[in-house]
Design brief:
Elements: E1 28-32, H1 37-48, E2 52-56, H2 70-81, E3 86-89, H3 96-110, E4 115-118, H4 133-165, E5 170-175, H5 179-182, H6 188-208, E6 213-220, H7 233-236, H8 252-259, E7 270-274, E8 277-280, H9 298-309
Helix pairs in contact: 1-2, 1-8, 3-4, 4-6
The structure holds nicotinamide-adenine-dinucleotide.
């Protein structure tokens, strides 16, 4: 799919209305899936901090159907109304050529690329025993390949620039989900894609560290089209009064911070962010190291491994318990 349409907007001379510190002045950002939901508020916040933004979106529904270019265009218009600079890019994040064109759009319109926020995606939930091949493939494609394609093309630009100029300013910010660690039962496709995103991001972060590029992943919780469906909708509902903990805007300060010069020393990390909380996850650790004197045999495994698991529940003790707090 090669649908590409860009519209340039011009930053007003009277500055950005709600702009705060200018932490991202002069930086060029791409946000995928920026037409609505989390991507929209992330794009707006990056612009508010001074970044020029490529608003990339295909305008599909929460389960990946249809196509609507008005969503991405309206975010460009919002940034323009704030006095910022933005272009829309209408392409499929998981299409090799579209994602290449997306990176190219940043270079053509703004002359550089500094920040890539990979966010686009959709869900097709089903229990493992009923999931179709298409439901699995399409969700792996949009999230995991969608992250890979953008990171791949941005990385090539940063590596070439880094080889020519030494250090570059590059920030990869990827969107995973707590589904990856809680392994949510109705989302074997989504949970797998979201786990893979951490690996893709950290692999890129390691490979590009010497050029000055960082890569981090976050797991948000927010009220969007994706969460306002089915059983989760009630939980994400806006409260009639009090703190609106699932407002998507609570996620954006972390994204803008990770995109900023202030976060140059943060790379390869995974965050959970929502409401008033930001959690930093640790890497999976070895709980225990079991050894034998000679070689393993069935009885040795039964004694050592079986002994370790004795009294533990089959699966629940392995996972972190989800939920607020
Ligand atoms: N909302 C949450 O609580 C939550 C929790 C965990 C993870 N996430 C992740 O956050 C990201 C944003 O989700 P959201 O909740 O804002 O959902 P959303 O449905 O509101 O927005 C997703 C956006 O991605 C775009 N998109 C989908 N497929 C695309 C494609 N192939 N190419 C380009 N754009 C495409 C859509 O058009 C839409 O604008 C997703 O990666 C999602 O998995 C969200």
């Amino acid at each position: 799919m090669a649908g590409l349409l860009c519209e340039r907007t011009t930053r007003q001379s009277d500055g950005i209305g709600n702009r705060s510190m200018g932490e991202l002045d002069g930086k060029v950002a791409i946000v995928t899936g920026a037409g609505r939901g989390l991507g929209r508020v992330e794009a707006l916040d990056l612009a508010r901090h001074g970044a020029r933004v490529v608003v990339s979106d295909l305008g599909v529904s929460a389960d990946g159907q249809g196509r609507d270019e008005s969503a991405g265009q309206s975010v460009v218009d919002e940034i323009k109304a704030m006095g910022g600079e933005a272009v829309a890019h209408f392409g499929d994040v998981a299409d090799w050529n579209d994602s290449k064109a997306m990176v190219q759009a940043a270079l053509e319109h703004f002359g550089d690329l500094n920040i890539l926020v990979c966010n686009a995606g959709f869900c097709r939930d089903r229990m493992i025993f009923g999931m179709s091949e298409e439901e699995f493939d399409s969700v792996i494609r949009v999230h995991l390949k969608g992250h890979f394609c953008g990171i791949r093309h941005a990385s090539e630009y940063w590596r070439n620039k880094g080889k020519a100029e030494g250090q570059v300013y590059g920030r990869i910010i990827s969107t995973s989900s707590e589904a990856a660690i809680f392994a949510s039962t109705g989302q074997p496709n989504y949970a797998a894609a979201k786990a893979g995103i951490i690996a893709v991001t950290n692999s890129a972060a390691q490979g590009l560290a010497k050029y000055g590029v960082t890569g981090n992943t976050f797991m948000p919780r927010a009220r969007t089209a994706m969460t306002m469906v089915g059983q989760t909708a009630a939980m994400f509902e806006k409260p009639e009064e009090g703190f609106d903990q699932f407002a998507p805007e609570h996620v954006t300060p972390l994204v803008s911070y990770l995109a900023s010069p202030a976060a140059a020393n943060i790379s390869g990390n995974v965050f959970v962010v929502w409401g008033k909380e930001i959690a930093v996850l640790s890497y999976p650790k070895r709980d225990v190291e079991l050894q034998v004197d000679e070689a393993w045999d069935f009885e040795a495994v039964r004694t050592k491994v079986g002994g370790y698991f004795e009294g533990k529940r089959p699966i629940a003790d392995s996972f972190i318990v989800p939920g607020p707090g």
